[in-house]
Amino acid sequence: MPRSALTALDTVQEAPEHDPAFLSQSLELAPDAVLAVDGENRIVLFNRAAERLWAVPREATLGEPLERLLPLLHDADGNAVAGSEIGQAADDTLTATLAHADGSPRMLSLRAIRVSTGIETLWVLFAREVTDQHLLQERLQQMLLMLDNSNSAIFVTGPDRSVAYVNGGFTRMFGYSRQTMIGQVPATLLAGPDTDPQLCERIGNAIARRESIQGEFLLYTRTRRPLWVSLAASPVVGEEGQVLGLVHVLTDITRTKMHQVMHEKVLNALVRDMPISDVMTLLCREVEHISPEVVISITGIDAENRMRPLAAPSLPGVLSTQMTGTAIGPRAGACGASAWHGRAMLIDDIATHPACEPCRHLLLPQGLRSSWSSPIKSSLGRVMGTVTLYYREPQEPNELHRSLIDSCLHLCTLTMEREQANERVHQLAFYDTLTGLPNRMMFSAKAEQALANAGRVNAQAAVLFVDLDRFKLINDAQGHSAGDGLLRDIAQRIDGEVQELHITGRQAGDEFVVVVPHCSAEQAGSLAERLLGAISAPASVGIMTLHPSASIGVAMYPGDGRDIELLVRHADMAMYRAKREGGGTFRFFSSDMNKVAQERVSLETALRDAIRLEQLRLEYQPQVSGCAQTHIHGVEALLRWQHPELGAIPPGRFIPVAEESGLISELSLWVLRQACVQMADWRHRGVPIPRISVNMSAINFRDRALAGLIGQTLSEHGLAADDLTLEITESVMLDPDPDVLGNIEAIYAMGVRLSLDDFGTGYSSLSHLHRLPIHELKLDQSFVRDIETSAIARTLTTSVLRIGDSLGMRVIAEGVESQAQQQFLAGQGCPILQGFLFSPPLCASALEHWLDRNQCQAATTA
Ligand code: C2E
Ligand code: MG
Ligand code: MG
Fold first, then answer.
1. How far apart are CA 254 and CA 348, in angstroms?
2. What separation in Å is there between the alpha carbon of 756 and the centre of ligand 3?
3. Taking the model in full, what pTM does it have?
């Protein structure tokens, strides 16, 4: 109330009672607008407040009809009341609407009193502007309406913590009516088994501090359905700081929370590498926790479309047992049918639905009446499994269930794809991609285990090392994909012969190893036989049919070694022996093999030292003309190694070691250089030696630089290309490596001669002979040796001579030791002879003496 009005009122109160002047002045100064109308409804009194309210001077209104000031009146029920009917509305609160100058409405509240003056009856109207209260009221109503329509549950508690107000959102969310809630302490109704027990305390503490509280809590509806809510409670504090009440706003976040919790738990489990069935069980428990009215199961579907139950924590185990391995199909239960159709399936009545035929006898006793199955699909759309919800009533999935299953399916896909990826990684890491057999790492781990088991019961075990014969040739000649096909085929054949407990692995290339636990040497022998038989069956490789064969080495546990590494090494040695003895067979490991192998290793070290310490030298064996032995065709340089402790080591022993260890490149170049030095020296001193032959290994020809190095060495020593002959073996001719052919051609183009050593012992192919630029054939010693005793040797010798003739190649007979051999060879027209009969290999000076002694001269034949 404005101060001036109060002062005015104070003034009035001091005036004497029943004084008419005082009364009219009181009316004049009253804070409410006061106006009076006579029996004809004409205005007879209009006080100052009325002047302010209507913004018209009294003079302009006195005597005017009331309707002019109050054209529209309404009673409390909203009925229109005309100004002339004011008498009938006496004692009622009326409302009138006026308009501001800007047209906005003004609300007046009026009350009419009948006053009888004795002369006439007047109607006195008390009016007050209530526009603000009216607007407030309107807004309040709107607000309540809004609150009721809000999806958030809102309730207000008073200072005693009992509920004073709940909105419609609350009744909808929790299912309690307003009447039930009013006066209740909310926690008694809303808390449940998993509600944070500290919730009430936390709210209480917050109130004590006059602070708001916010958090996520699990509450329960009237039907005891768990509900995750986000709660914001704010205290309403009075002017004196006292808490008048608390406003609680709750939002249902079950869905968000459910997604978040499920995601968090599952992802956590995946990060910790939990087994898939544990992850799925966790997921099931979470769903059953959120929606306790359902029972859930998760089933995987394997590549053969068979069911693999993963989790069903609330279903009897026998159901999973029955399902395991069952093929999916329209009548294979809810899961099987949904997987079969590739879409969600609702089984409205388990008791009658045909799909439930095989499992209803297990489900019905559990009180389960209906189910809803959805397929779990991979990102590529393949059905990997199903998620099934079972209900205790015949019902359809509600919105919460659908949303739960949506989340579940997503997480199941993630888990299953991850499992598959893990399996793939496992497969790649531990299995050979070509054959699918355990790789070396996996094999070793399994084999160690098997040996340890055998050791515990004092049992024997066998390790079989299988190596294909001539696989490299097949691979090179037929191409790698053909080679791969053959290896796959062989792996299958081996697999077909071994038993479940045997461990098969692919070591490398064409090597396979089989560990046979609890196996005697005899049994190992017969398994090796069976394997050889299986492997040697014809195999189609590309358009060819091959007759593969293998060499097998067998080592026995514990006699030949106690750990798998040693056993495999020993079996490998035995295999090597089998291979050296012609292949297609098997050998048992023996300790002498080990000795040989150890010797090889020490020989290799010694050979490295020998090269460095110059313990190597060359000897030269003359090659003489078949008709006149004083005519020298050339000399063959042969390598000699005099070891300070081991004595003379023949090249037949150390050359293979050099070849296997890679030392051969260095060694051959050393020989070549040494031979050229010697040849240059002879040339320089006029010693009559027309040419020098140097033995080359097949491996040397794979070195692209070979031809270049030869050319360079010759020119460094001032020698012509035809001063040098390179002796190669047939394996060089068969080598498919394009660099080998490149070298042969470049060497030929240079003018250096090529001689085919040990001719007749390998897989000579006449077509190759014909195609390659070979100058000379060296008939192998084995033919020459048997000339006197074997007609076959004689026939073969004659044939080689004829082949040489017809291909325009000179033939040298090696290893001529006797007169008879010499006579036969000379008789057959063999142009050149080499052997102890004429001279053993000699050092350079001894050879020079030999030449002098025999008055030799250089042969004129080219
Ligand atoms: P090869 O090239 O066939 O050499 C001929 C072998 O026969 C030599 O043995 C030689 O001493 C021997 N020999 C010669 N005349 C007679 C004979 O009348 N009767 C008998 N029983 N043997 C005879 P060696 O020197 O022990 O060489 C053996 C093999 O070692 C050679 O066979 C050759 O393949 C290889 N070799 C020798 N030196 C080298 C070399 O510098 N480099 C390469 N890559 N291999 C070499
Ligand atoms: Mg030779
Ligand atoms: Mg030879």
1. 27
2. 9
3. 0.47
